[in-house]
Amino acid sequence: MPNNFGCEMRKYKFRDLTMEELKNVSMTYPNFTFSMNTYTFKDGSQKDLLNFSGTVPVKYGNSYNIPICLWILDSHPFAPPICFLKPTSNMGIAVGKHVDAQGRIYLPYLQNWSHPKSTLIGLIKEMISKFEEELPLYSLSYSDAARQSELLSYIAKITEGETDMKSRSKTGGRNEGCSNKITVVGAGDLGIACVLAVAAKDVADKVVLLDLSEGAAKGGTMDLEIFAVPNVEISKDFSASADSKVVVLTVNSLGNAQTYLDVIQGNVDLFRGIIPAVAHYSQNAVLLVASYPVEVMTFVSWKLSSFPKSRVIGVGANLDSERFQYVLTNLLKAEVLAKDAWVVGEQGEDKVPSWTSCNVVANQTEAMAACDSREKVANRAMEILKGRGQRSWSVGLSVADLADSILKDKRKVHSVSTLAKGCCSINSEVFLSLPCILGSSGVVEMVRLEEDPLVQEKLQSSAGSIHDLQQQLKL
Questions:
Q1: pLDDT tens profile 264-297
Q2: Closest among 120, 162, 200, 152 to 403, alpha carbons compared
Q3: Which residues, at least 6 apart from 190, have a Cβ–Cβ distance to it below 8 Å?
Q4: Any idea what the Cα angle at residue 185 is, between residues 95 and 252, rounded to 5°?
Q5: C-alpha distance from residue 329 to each of 333, 339, 449 (Å)
Q6: Distance from first CA to last CA of the chain, Å, rounded?
Q7: Is the pTM of this model over 0.85?
Q8: Beta-strand relationship, 46-60 and 341-344
Q9: Are strands 137-139 and 91-95 parallel, antiparallel or unpaired?
Q10: What is the pLDDT at residue 474?
Q11: Rounded to whole angstroms, how far apart are CA atoms 475 and 466?
Q12: Closest CA to 297 of 282, 324, 315
């Protein structure tokens, strides 16, 4: 590889490790060419990244040279590269288990990437192995080659996103008759709690648990296999999630981050390798985000997936609202108030009780008295709930509740994280918990909150702080 890359790689956080690995690639595959170019991410942001391209030998009856291009992120080797096919004008992309219509490559090796175990050489070897099972390219006829030119131009820019180009598909028939399928991404305590809650409530016909941890099944995942929970499949391959109606995100980065911003950026880097894959395999799914912090990670999922805002929601304050209503009804005997009571805003200390309607009263004096009485009851309820944490099993039950409303198209109101722009004079793209009617397409409608200056001030304050935080993230 060229010697002048040392200067151009100044922005790479682990320059020496990256250079050493690229030299190994260059020695093993001398046909690869290296360059530094601008990569455009889905959110429109751009970054100068090192990339290399060339062909890998694949045996599929005959021998083929498959052209590929790998983009190396500036956090390499702790983040996986972004991989694409690089077909010539007489080649068509055969969309399949490991390749999408734009030629982006999805492999278990990428999804389970972990330094120092994972290497570029190991990735290329798995790529060859998977391509030998299912050839990713096919030869075009003369007329097909003409239609391929626009797609090739698109791929040459290496710009991710939706396209209206058609490719030959080999992905039919994955659903296998499952009308209500849920995928839970992440096999930690929260992921397993979600699987068990969904299974206990009989919400779905099938549940897939995607275990992204290293090594063999262990802990709770192993227990799920031992005791054979009905209709639950455990997999490390994202293709197992194909045609899910709901995809639940529970993963969190477990890196050695020093600051809160670093923790969130670690989650963003993790999601960058997950969201495009689940969006590829379940293009009509509703993404349900439970990862922390839920407001920011729901925003990140929305940006990385390119899904409409209605189909990307966070668990938000659903659990808090259900608890709030329960205390009002059963402990404080205020059942009439409970029907329209919600916890809204940001998870944590900045959440606030609110109402979606009020009872009609005869005059202003009675109205003020009713509001004062309601505020006292609400404060009492919030005091009772103070200190109650959100344990994994509690959040799992909340996730099952939301999934049930979505899959069964119940049109039930929940307080979930949704895009709040345009609500309460919020002008930025932030997600906050607000009462929403949920159905099979996600958020059907946002329920209007009662006008309350204190609630609006709290929501605007949360929106401002979340937006400032999002501006510092690298998507």
A1: 988 998 898 899 889 988 999 999 999 999 999 9
A2: 200
A3: 250, 290, 392, 395, 396
A4: 125
A5: 5, 9, 20
A6: 28
A7: no
A8: unpaired
A9: antiparallel
A10: 83
A11: 15
A12: 315
How far is CA 263 from its chain centroid? Answer: 16
How far, in Å, CA of 120 to CA of 104, rounded?
16
Taking 60 as the threshold, does the pLDDT of residue 457 lie above it?
yes
φ/ψ of 474, rounded to 5, equals -105, 105
Sign of CA pseudo-dihedral 311, 315, 316, 318: positive
pLDDT at 315: 96
Residue type, 142: Y
Rounded distance between C-alpha atoms, residue 142 and residue 10, angstroms: 45
Contacts of 239 (CB under 8 A, 6+ apart): 97, 98, 106, 174, 281
**In what helix (H) or strand (E) does residue 334 lie, and over which residues does it extend?**
none
Identity at 349, one-letter amino acid code: E
Residues 163 and 219: their CA atoms lie apart, in Å, by: 41
Q: Is the pLDDT of residue 362 over 70?
A: no
Q: Got the DSSP string for 159-198? A: B-S------EE--TT-STT-SSEEEEE--SHHHHHHHHHH
In angstroms, the CA 139 to CA 118 distance is: 32
Least confident of 14-28, 182-196, 322-336, 420-434: 322-336
What is the overall mean pLDDT for the chain? Answer: 82
pLDDT band at 118 (very low <50, low <70, confident <90, very high): very high
The DSSP-derived string for 355-422 is ES-----SSHHHHHHHHHHHHHHHHHHHHHHTT----HHHHHHHHHHHHHHHHTT--EEEEEEEE-TT
- Of 256, 249, 238, 355, give the one whose Cα is nearest residue 293: 249
Alpha helices for 178-334 (secondary structure H): 189-200, 219-226, 260-272, 275-281, 294-305, 318-326
pLDDT tens string 76-108: 988 899 999 998 878 888 877 788 878 889 888
* pLDDT at 1 exceeding the cut of 70: no
Query: How far from 298 is each of 132, 169, 195, 286, 342, CA to CA, in Å?
Result: 37, 30, 20, 12, 20
Across 39-48, 88-97, 328-337, least confident range = 328-337
Residue with tokens 């509690």: 394
Q: How far is the C-alpha of 349 from the C-alpha of 76, rounded, in Å?
A: 36
> Strand 91-95 and strand 33-40: pairing?
unpaired
The most confident of the ranges 21-35, 106-120, 131-145, 149-163 is 21-35
Burial per residue of 350-384, b for 16 or more beta-carbon CB atoms within 10 angstroms, e otherwise: ebbbbbbeeeeeeeeeeeeeeeeebeebbeebbee
User: By percentage, how much of the chain surpasses pLDDT 70?
Assistant: 80
Q: Can you read off the two tokens belonging to residue 309? A: 């805002």
